[in-house]
Amino acid sequence: MVAILAATWDEIKHFKSIIPKTEEGKWEELEYIRGNVHGKPVVIVQTGVGIRKARKGASFIIQKFKPELIISAGHGGALNPDLRVGDLVIGNWVLSLKKNERRELTTCIPDSESGPKKGGILTENRFIHDPMEKRRLFDITGALCVDMETWGVAEAAMQSGTPVLSVRSISDESAEIIPDMGYIYDSSGKLDKNKALKYFVSRPYHILPFIRFRYINSKKSVDSLNRFLLGLIQYL
Predict the structure, then answer these.
(1) Residues contacting 134, CB < 8 A, separation 6+
(2) How close are the terminal C-alpha atoms of the chain, in Å?
(3) Model confidence pLDDT, tens digit, residues 38-64
(4) What CATH code would you report for 2-235?
(5) How far apart are CA 44 and CA 35, in angstroms?
(6) What is the pLDDT of residues 7-45, one digit of tens each?
(7) DSSP 3-state assignment of 138?
(8) Where are the alpha helices (DSSP H) in the chain?
């Protein structure tokens, strides 16, 4: 069995829409759907946003389903200035600056010039939205992109020895100005309307970047990620 873990259903919504459901379940805030894709058993999971929820969710799924492979999938913010919205990154390793530790990840797909870029992923427990901070993090880590979940998944999987493949679809470029999504969205990935109103009243110059991110960048990122995941399951 392959387990695909995402912070929110929105990130894997196309995959979710086509999976024939054989089982659905919920544990705390986590939700999962089990089924078969291309004749292979798959469980897809919404863990919630952040390292702690990703770690708890991965631990639960490992104990319940004992998957042969975990795929940590979702959006990623570009640190490398060469990456564009919709580009895919496969993590060779994941880094936690807080713990000053790096863990190796599996990259069980062949290299391709036109395929995903392979390199490091930085996991932070906050949304990195400032271009200057992205530049600084790229300079000190060399990671291609930043996310909020891969480290938590890798920590949980280390205890059982379950291999983890992390694939991130770029949702915002390194020099792109975007709002602080970590403030205006809650931990389940839903827009907090009260916080959003307060945020945009004080920062009206972020309204257009938000519209671009939500309705253009996110769509392109999600489409790219879901196409890749469907092909990857067939390949595996």
Answers:
(1) 77, 78, 79, 128, 146, 174, 175
(2) 10
(3) 889 999 999 999 999 999 999 999 999
(4) 3.40.50.1580
(5) 8
(6) 999 999 999 999 999 999 999 989 999 999 988 999 999
(7) helix
(8) 13-18, 51-65, 131-141, 150-160, 181-184, 193-202, 207-212, 218-235
Is 68 in contact with 1 (CB distance < 8 Å)?
Answer: yes
Does 115 score more than 90 pLDDT? no
- 8 A C-beta contact, residue 2 and residue 69: yes
Q: Distances from the Cα of 226 to the Cαs of 7, 44, 56, 187, in angstroms?
A: 14, 12, 24, 22
pTM of the shown model: 0.93
Q: What is the rounded CA–CA span in Å between residue 146 and residue 95?
A: 9
pLDDT, position 236? 82
pLDDT of res. 72:
98
Place of tokens 């564009």: 84
Reference 27, options 65, 69, 75; nearest CA is 65
AA identity, residue 81: P
Report domain extents, the chain.
Answer: 2-235
Q: In this predicted model, what pLDDT tens digit does every residue of 99-112 receive, in sequence order?
A: 999 999 998 777 76
Tokens of 79: 């640190």
